[in-house]
Amino acid sequence: MATIEVIRVTTIEVIQMATIEVTRMGTIEVIRVARIGFIRIATIGFIRMAGIGVIRIATISVDIMD
C-alpha cells in the first residue's frame, strides 16, 4: 500500500491520482483507484518510490467500476 502521485505508462498518457492502493497478485499487479475503479497491469517494468512514485509498464488495461 502506497501513495502515488504520478503513473507513467508507455502507451498511455500520464494519469494523476490522489491515492491508490497497490496489491501484488502473483505476476499481475492490481492498482485499485478510489472512486474510479482499478488498473490491471500485465507487464511491469519497475516501480520507484521516491517522493513521487513512478510506475513504468509495458501493457495496461483500465476497468471502470461504480
Automatic annotation (TrEMBL):
Q: Protein name, please?
A: Uncharacterized protein
Q: Which organism is it from?
A: Thiocapsa imhoffii
